[in-house]
Write a structure and sequence with these properties.
The strands form three sheets. A five-stranded mixed sheet has the order 6-8-9-11-10. The chain folds into three domains: about 140 residues, Beta-Lactamase (2-Layer Sandwich), CATH 3.30.450; about 50 residues, Orthogonal Bundle (Helix Hairpins), CATH 1.10.287.130; about 140 residues, Heat Shock Protein 90 (2-Layer Sandwich). Helix 1 packs antiparallel against helix 5, helix 8 crosses helix 9 and helix 9 runs antiparallel to helix 10. The protein is rod-shaped, with a radius of gyration of 44 Å. By secondary structure, the protein is of the alpha+beta class. The longest helix is centred in the first third of the chain and has 53 residues.
């Protein structure tokens, strides 16, 4: 198995998530999509209803002016034509003159140029193309009238309508500011919800989180107030449960002890019956011990810096059958966690593996990487049916095979393991081991 993979993994599929997982990410994606669609629709509407009609009107008006100027020049007496050309340039910024041969170079295609060629051709009945002269600022059109080749020129920037980029920029800036304001509101809401989520996790782990500030909008304030009240009530219920379990377990041991003493003082009783009763009392005592462990597992423990290889090696050496436990110590793996809880969890899983492993070796594995820690306990026993891999974590649940009361199980061991792991934000899972047997895995995230 490569580094970073779960110790019990058969294989994992990584799927690309195209849609953000967080509330803020989704809100940002939705708002951005709506913003782009709205901006696109608005710009398209402005282009179709404002820019295109203005461009068409400008090209049509310029074509009409150019044709009228050419027709006027033809109708004027030759001696007045020069004065008319000067007046046309000064008042309308148009140049007009008679030429002998046409220009060769055509201007680059554009929306305004195509429209102007179309309107000139429609008004003159000629195939007219815009030409480029020596001065790149001027654009020329050549018209044949009354046997004269007339060349008319205009400054393109004076007549061609530019797209209203300034107005579009102002409109875009306003819409962008609106989007940023909406994102800030969504960010603020997502932060509050994240705080609620983290506090809910602490409540689920049996801890009382810091009270959240009951401020903000009415809906968030009401939600925070209800959550704080719920957290207080849950904490009281957990404390009452712990006290109740501890009290009942402690009080039950007194009559059991008296019954043991009474059995020991019987002289003429059937020895076989006495042994059976002593066995029942011993089993009751084991159940009470398990219930006390279950109650203690609900109480917190201060974390400390530990070297996990040393902890697991100590557990393997202190197990009921250390010769069967295989633990290849690897690279150093230091973490800050509750070592007592870790020993109880892994020790319970290890003893289960030794008890039900049918005398075969039990593998203890440790994987330590940037994402967290994974500890695996793998045996070659009969395993657990897939349908029971989760139900075995329920208190007093037993299987109808070798994992039963006759082999020493009380039905509380795995329940204690799951409860204790959850109280520290860890995860415990069981799955079938490839080749037969069972793999129990403890996952400790990097935050733990």
């Amino acid at each position: 198995m490569g580094p970073g993979l779960p110790v019990c993994a058969q294989g994992q599929d990584e799927r690309l998530k195209l849609f953000p997982a967080t509330l803020f990410g989704r809100a940002a994606a939705i708002l951005l999509s709506i913003f782009l669609l709205a901006q696109g629709a608005a710009m398209f509407a402005v282009w179709k209803t404002v820019v295109v009609p203005l461009t068409e009107n400008s090209a049509d008006a310029l074509a009409a002016h150019m044709v009228l100027a050419a027709q006027t020049w033809v109708e004027l007496p030759p001696e007045t034509r020069e004065d008319y050309e000067i007046e046309l340039f000064l008042q309308h910024n148009l140049e007009l003159g008679k030429v002998d041969k046409p220009l060769a170079k055509r201007v680059k295609p554009s929306r305004f140029g195509d429209l102007l060629e179309y309107y000139l051709a429609r008004r003159t009945g000629q195939d007219i193309h815009l030409k480029q002269g020596p001065d790149p600022a001027w654009t020329w059109a050549e018209i044949n009238l009354a046997g004269n080749l007339l060349r008319l020129g205009f400054v393109r920037d004076r007549y061609e309508l530019d797209a209203p980029w300034e107005a579009g920029a102002v409109f875009l800036s306003g819409a962008l500011l609106t989007l940023l304001a909406a994102l800030l509101l969504a960010r603020h809401t997502s932060i509050r919800l994240r705080q609620l989520s983290m506090s809910a996790q602490e409540v689920g782990q049996g801890r009382l989180p810091e009270r959240l500030p009951e401020t903000g909008a009415d809906e968030l304030k009401a939600l925070t107030t209800a959550f704080n009240r719920m957290a207080d009530e849950v904490q009281v219920l957990l404390e009452n449960r712990t006290v109740l379990l501890s009290g009942i377990s402690h009080d039950l041991r007194t009559p059991i002890t008296r019954m043991k003493l009474a059995l020991a003082m019987l002289d003429d009783a059937d020895p076989k019956m006495v042994r059976r009763m002593e066995g029942d009392l011993a089993e009751m005592n084991r159940l009470i011990s398990s219930m006390l462990d279950f109650a203690r597992s609900l109480q917190g423990e201060a974390p400390s810096d530990v070297e996990l290889n040393a902890v697991l090696a100590e557990l393997a050496a202190a197990s009921s059958d250390p010769d069967r436990v295989r633990f290849p110590s690897g690279a150093a793996c230091r973490r800050r966690l509750s070592v007592g809880a870790l020993k109880r969890i892994v020790g319970n899983l290890l003893e289960n593996a030794l008890r039900y492993g049918e005398g075969q070796a039990v593998d203890l594995e440790l994987k330590c990487d940037a994402r967290g820690v994974r500890i695996g306990v793998l045996d070659r026993g009969p395993g657990i049916p897939e349908a029971d891999l989760e139900t075995v974590f329920q208190p007093f649940h037993r299987l109808e095979n070798s994992r039963s009361r006759e082999t020493g199980g009380s039905g509380l061991g795995l329940a204690v393991v799951r409860q204790l792991a959850a109280a520290h934000g860890w995860q415990v899972a069981l799955q079938a081991r490839e080749g037969g047997g069972l793999c129990a895995e403890v996952v400790i995230p990097i935050a733990g």
